[in-house]
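MODEL INPUT / OUTPUT PAIR
PAIR INDEX: 1
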Amino acid sequence: MSDNNSDEPLAVVGAGVMGTAVAALAVGHGHPVTLIDSSPRAREDAPDRVRFQLRTARMMNALPEDRPVGPLTVAGTQDAAAGASAVIEAVTEDPKEKAAVLAGLAAATGPGTLLVSNTSGVPIEELGDAVPHPEDLVGVHFMNPAYLIPTVEVVLGPRTGDAAARAVHTLLAGLGRRGIVVGDGPGFVTSRLLHRMINDAIELVREGRATPETVDALMRDCIGHRTGPLATADLIGLDNLADSLRVLHDRTGDAAFRPSELLLEKVRRGHLGRKSGRGFYDYEEAIR
C-alpha cells in the first residue's frame, strides 16, 4: 500500500451529492479521478456537477492555486477502479449497497489497495465482512460540502491494518484534510450526536411547537450552531438523513434515532432538501 500524492489516480464510486463533492476535492488537488456510477443519468450530470463545485471551491479559496486540476473520467462499472491508488465508496447510506460496492471494488483493485467507505454511521467492522482483506478498509466521514470542510472523521475498524491507517492519513493530507481518528461503532461521534439533535428538532416542528426558522434561529443565536439543525438536514439530504437514522436505530435500539414521521413524509413527497429544491426550506430559485 503506497503513499498517495497529487498525481496518483483515485476512484470514487457514487456520483451523488457526496461523490461529486469528493471528486471535485480530489481533482482540485491535482488527482486524476475516475468517478463511477451505474446510473446513466448520474454519469451524464456528473461532469457539470463537479465543475460547478470546483468553481464554488475556487470562489471560496478552498483549493490550492499552485496545482493544475486533475482529469475526470466518468465510468459505469467498478472494474474502472483498477489501477487506482485508493478507492472511495460514496453511495447511499444503505449497508447492503455499501457492502456490495466495496466487495466489487476489492475484486477490481486487489489486495493492498486502500478501500475507503464514506459513511456517516455504518460500522467499519460490519462492512469489513464484505471484503476479502478487511485490513485494507477504513472509514472516512467527509462532511458536506467536502471541498469546504477541512476536518473529517477517520474510523479504523478492529481489522484495519497499519498500512491502511498510514495510507488514509497520507491521502487526506494530500487533499488538504485533517483526519481525526475515532472508535468504530454506529454513528461514530458526529452522527451519533448530530443526528439525534436533528431528529429532535424535526419532532419539535412536527409537534407544532416551533417553525423550522424558529428552531434554527434559536440554535444559531443561543447555542452557536453555525447553520441550525434543519438547514443542516436540508444540506445532508433528507433521504440520506432518514437512512442514517435507520442505521443508528437498528444498531443501537435507541428510540431517539427512529426517524420522525415528518421526516419520512417529506422523503415520500420527494422534498429532499437542497438537492431537490425543497425540504424544510425552499431552494427552487437557487437551483434554477
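PAIR INDEX: 2
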Amino acid sequence: MSKRCLIIGASGEIGYSVTRTLVEKGYRVGLQYYSNLRRIEKLENQIPAGQFLGAHQADLTTTEGIQAFLQIISKEWEAVVFCGGHLWKGLFQDMTDAEMDELYHVHLKAPWMISRHVLPFMIHIKAGNIVTVSSIFGEEGASMEVAYSSVKGAQISFVKALSKEVAPSGIRVNVVTPGVVATKMNNMLSPEEWNTLEGEIPLGRAGQPDEIADAISYLLSDQSSYVTGHVLRVNGGW
C-alpha cells in the first residue's frame, strides 16, 4: 500500500506543488490549510479518490488551535511535510507580542507538536520521514525580517537535533531552505526590487514552487535513504 503523507500548509504555493508532486509519486495525502478553501477544493479535484485522505482547516497560530487540529487527525503517517508559514516584515522594535506569538506557533510549536503526535507510530514501524521548509534567512538572517529569520533558524536546529534522536528508529528528518521563490509572499516587491533581487542570484532568476517540491520529493524518496539531518539549499546559488 502507498505511503501516507500529511502536508501542513497545503494551500500555499509550495504546499500546493508538494501535494501534486507527491500524488504523482503515488502517495496518499492528507492536507492542512488555514483559510484558502477554494484552493484546497481545486487541489482535491486533481487527486484520485484513493489517494485523498482528507483536508482539515486549522489555525496553527495558537496552542489551542494546534491541539484542536491534533484531535481530528490520525497519528499514523509515514511522512510529514511542513510547508506552512507566513512572513512578518518590518522593524523588529515595531513587532507586537501577538505577532511574535503567531510566528512562534506556526513555525515552531506546530512542527514540535505535530511531530510529537506522529513519532510514536513512526517509531513503532521503524520508518518515517519528516521534511520542513525553512528559508535561506534561517541560515543567513535578514534585516527587517528578524523574528522570521529567528524562527526559521530554529527550525533548522530542530531538524538537526531530532534527526539524531530518531535515526536509530529508522526515521529521517531533513530541511529545505529555499531562496527567493515566485510566490504570493513576495508580491510586496516592486518590479524594480524584483529585478534587483534576481540580479543578485547567480542563476539569474527566482525559484519556482515546483523546484522546491522536487527537492522535498527527493528527501522523502529512497534515493536519499542515507540522508538525514541535512539542510538542502535550493536557492539558485544566492
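PAIR 2 NOTE: The CA atoms of residues 69 and 230 lie 28 Å apart.
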